[in-house]
Write a structure and sequence with these properties.
CATH topology of chain B: ABC transporter involved in vitamin B12 uptake, BtuC
Oligomer: heterodimer
CATH superfamily of the largest domain in chain A: P-loop containing nucleotide triphosphate hydrolases
Distance between the termini of chain A: 64 Å
Distance between the termini of chain B: 65 Å
Order of helices and strands of chain B: HHHHHHHHHHHHH
CATH class of chain B: Mainly Alpha
Number of strands of chain B: 0
Number of domains of chain A: 2
Helix content of chain A: 25-40%
């Protein structure tokens, strides 16, 4: 019997208000790809930080190759052959790829580092130019930098924290190839995720966490999505009720919207044509950085440079209106950045309501109005109850909520306003299965009540699940729309590379 | 007439050096993510410490060392407060300036009338005899040349060495640097003390060489100008140097103009150095992309490891 590469025995870690890990044990064999599955807040990240030395456990043992270790900081972890790729990249934007990698390595010269990056990149098919500055890279490329940096420390155990949350389907495939090659060379991999199909495809062992405790150890290849999610959330994921779409009159029309980039690293929008009708959900698929951000800024009113007449809500030209004016016309918007754009991190949930809602302000409902504190708190309380948001109460600061719960709150805030048109960007990014299903359910319910919904997402599964019609955005151009019944993953994948002109020659007007 | 231009250039270099030393020091601690608004106070305390040391020992070297020590000591207190106790950088820096101006005035009472020995002639042999160029460039205190050399070394250090890269990484994203295993707080502490030491050197240069006497509040805003220079120079050492000499040059020019009796109110002339420096540096730093690449992203923000 071989010695396990990593063995955790009874790891317990408590924070002032929550026990993040309680008596967690886990065994990873050499060359094994081991999944740690759990919802957001189940304690996966805390456990990884304990292994990587960023946090010290309150109790329990860590054994590496059969030896009891005390890992006091990430440096010691790396010295002992543990590498980690974080979900939030630890990269320095203004420095080059090579400099970033160099900072993660023990003393060598920049020239040596550059050479070894090129060597690793070729060996694993991770295409990257070491001289480019990180801020010019796409998210997928940034992840490659992180992976190369981890690989160059020659890890025996590589930890990946939600590595696919930012990747396109194609990039995920590429990543899996790299990981399989690594495993075949004897490197153990700890793969943190809440995506069931990925774990079943990639991993050979799986430890499931729920509320800080191990709720199952299994071989994911022998399990079904349903049995895995039972272990993970204690129930099967709620099924979405999908009624027939009853599309009504057109709510928003975008006609020939072209917009030059505002930002050095942005994308020019080119002749975007788009329409959303009452009672339908329209999706926009695409790899991030293809103009989604620019389009959303133009639609929400944060960017008011759109040409006259290019954006209409009903019959009204809104292209010059600011977000507040568009909101008064019934357009509500959920941005992808929760903290900072969707919510103010340091303000309470109740106060965050005031960003887009004015019900709790006395007349006049503008800068001169008083805040009715009691009514505001009650309003927040109602949203927290109705959407089952896990929060201390209306006075908890936004930053203290988990990503999924804050997202639910922001979506709740906009849905509760009974919008005529709801635009949602990445509705379930980094949100766990239960909460994601709930958010999608609410969006569907809103549609059934006759609201027009536009969903921009990088997760194809999600778009296929909720949308009635879909567009694809690529390099600042928008494809013609396709009813969901006619769309396939292959076709949309092809369109994501900008190749719709070929498949629909009749509608090829985007020269 | 030509001779007076040579003297103007010589005075410019001399005046610019005070600003350049302090500003390069502040640049180092800002690159590590810490803004120290205590520059003025550190320079004042260093000026009196340096001056007093020269009065008592008669040695310029002792004076410079005393100034450096005073600046470094005050910066260490500042660093301990903002880095370990997480006090607000701006408020703590302002407090340091207020303390420094008060304390230096108090400690300096006994030295107001004090004299220090005649400065020796710093002329470089042979080179200083070249007509025009000699008096303009080669009759300076050694620190004037060392400052230029230091700026070059700093450029090499920041952009060509691993240590410089680590320093910049701490200023750009302390969280990431911490995750990679760097001792963020100690690196920041080192940078702050280095910044204080250089401000101290600048203060000592002011009271020992530039105007060899002690007057209460003699730094007269140079600490603030040095702080502003780092920003206007978009945190690039070469531009800091340029800005410092520009400021020194216009200051000297307006004295010259006042001397020859130009018909402008002297207040307007006194404004000139500030206006000219802001104008030129604003002009070269108006590219937002350039600023975004050079500004230490985490500057002024507190860092709590382990959160």
């Amino acid at each position: 019997m071989t010695t396990p590469r990593l063995e955790l025995k009874g790891i317990t870690k408590a924070f002032p208000d929550v026990v993040a890990n309680s008596d967690v044990s886990l065994t990873v064999m050499p060359g094994e790809t081991h999944a740690v599955l759990g919802e957001n807040g189940a304690g996966k990240s805390t456990l990884m930080k304990v292994i990587y030395g960023s946090l010290m456990p309150d109790a329990g043992q860590i054994l590496l190759n059969g030896q009891v270790m005390r890992i006091r900081n990430p440096k010691e972890a790396r010295a002992n052959g543990i590498g980690m790729v974080f979900q939030h990249f630890n990269l320095f934007d203004t420095m080059t790829v090579a400099e970033n990698v160099w900072l993660g390595l023990a003393r060598t010269s920049l020239e040596q580092v550059t050479a070894s990056i090129v060597a690793k990149a070729t060996e694993y098919g991770l295409d990257i130019d070491p001289r480019r500055a990180v801020h010019t890279l796409s998210v997928g490329e940034r992840q490659r930098v992180e992976i190369i940096r981890a690989l160059l420390t020659r890890p025996e155990l590589l930890i990946l924290d939600e590595p696919t949350s930012v990747l396109t389907p194609q990039a995920v495939e590429k990543l899996f190839l790299v990981l399989r090659k690594l495993a075949s060379e004897g490197c153990s991999i700890l793969y943190i995720s809440h995506k069931l199909h990925e774990i079943r495809e990639l991993c050979t062992a799986c430890t499931v966490l729920r509320a800080g405790k191990v709720t199952g150890v299994c071989n994911p290849k022998e399990e079904s999505n349903a049995s895995l999610s039972r272990m993970m959330i204690g129930a099967e994921p709620p099924l979405l009720e999908h009624h027939e779409c009853q599309a009504g009159s057109t709510t928003m029309v975008v006609r020939n919207l072209s917009l030059e980039r505002d930002d050095q690293f942005g994308v020019d929008l080119q002749e975007i044509n788009l329409s959303v009708c009452a009672g339908e959900i329209v999706g926009i698929a695409g790899v991030s950085g293809n103009g989604q951000k620019e389009l959303l800024y133009a639609l929400s009113g944060e960017d008011t440079r759109s040409p006259h007449g290019s954006i209409r809500i009903g019959e009204v030209d809104v292209s010059a209106l600011d977000p507040g004016e568009r909101r008064r016309m019934g357009l509500h918007f959920v941005p992808e950045e929760r903290l900072g754009r969707g919510a103010v991190p340091t303000l309470s949930l109740a106060q965050n309501l005031l960003l887009t809602r004015t019900e709790s302000i006395s007349i006049p409902r503008c800068a001169g109005g008083w805040i009715r504190v009691k009514a505001l708190a009650n309003h927040a309380e109602r949203l927290i109850d109705r959407f089952h948001i896990k929060a201390g109460g209306p006075n908890s600061v936004a930053r203290s909520l988990s990503g999924g719960n804050l997202q639910k709150y922001i979506v709740a805030r906009e849905i509760d306003a009974n919008p005529k048109l709801l635009i949602v960007s990445q509705p379930t990014w980094g949100v766990d299965v239960g909460a994601a299903a709930q958010i999608r359910g609410e969006i569907l319910r809103l549609r059934d009540e006759g609201c027009a919904v536009l969903v921009v997402s990088e997760e194809l599964d999600e778009l296929f699940e909720v949308c009635d019609r879909m567009y694809v955005i690529a390099r600042g151009k928008l494809s013609p729309s396709i009813p969901i019944a006619e769309a396939t993953v292959e076709k949309i994948g092809e369109w994501m590379s900008g190749l719709w002109d070929r498949s629909v020659p009749g509608e090829a007007r985007h020269a | 007439m030509m001779d007076s231009y040579a003297l103007l250039i010589a005075a410019t270099l001399n005046a610019g050096t005070v600003l350049a030393i302090a500003s390069l020091g502040l640049l180092i601690n800002e690159k590590a993510g810490i803004v120290n608004l205590g520059a003025e106070g550190m320079m004042l305390c260093a000026a009196i410490a340096g001056f007093a040391a020269v009065v008592h020992t008669g040695s310029d070297t002792m004076g410079f060392l005393a100034g450096i020590a005073a600046g470094a000591f005050m910066a260490a207190i500042f660093g301990g407060l903002v880095i370990w106790l997480n006090t607000n950088q701006y408020a703590t820096g302002l407090a340091l300036t207020l303390f420094g101006s008060g304390f230096s005035a108090f400690a300096g009472i006994a030295y107001v009338q004090a004299q220090i020995p005649e400065r020796p002639n710093f002329a470089l042999p042979y080179l200083s005899d070249i007509p025009l160029v000699g008096p303009a460039l080669f009759r300076q205190h050694p620190l004037v040349y060392l400052t230029v050399a230091f700026a070059l070394v700093l450029i090499w250090f920041l952009y060509r060495t691993r240590s410089g890269l680590i320093l910049r990484s701490v200023g750009e994203s302390p969280e990431s640097a911490h995750a990679l295993g760097y001792a963020v707080r100690w690196i920041r502490m080192g940078a702050v003390v280095m910044g204080g030491a250089l401000c101290g050197l600048a203060g000592a240069y002011l009271s020992i060489i530039y105007t060899p006497l002690w007057v209460e509040g003699m730094v007269a805003g140079k600490g603030w100008i040095a702080l502003a220079l780092t920003t206007f120079a978009t945190w690039r050492p070469a531009r800091v140097l340029l800005g410092a000499y520009l400021f020194g040059g216009v200051t000297m020019l307006q004295f010259h103009l006042q001397g020859v009796g130009v018909e402008l109110p002297s207040q307007v002339l006194s404004m000139l150095p500030y206006l000219a420096t802001i104008f030129v540096l604003a002009l070269i730093s108006r590219n937002p992309r350039w600023i975004r690449i050079n500004i230490p992203a985490a500057m002024g923000k507190p860092f709590h490891p382990g959160s």
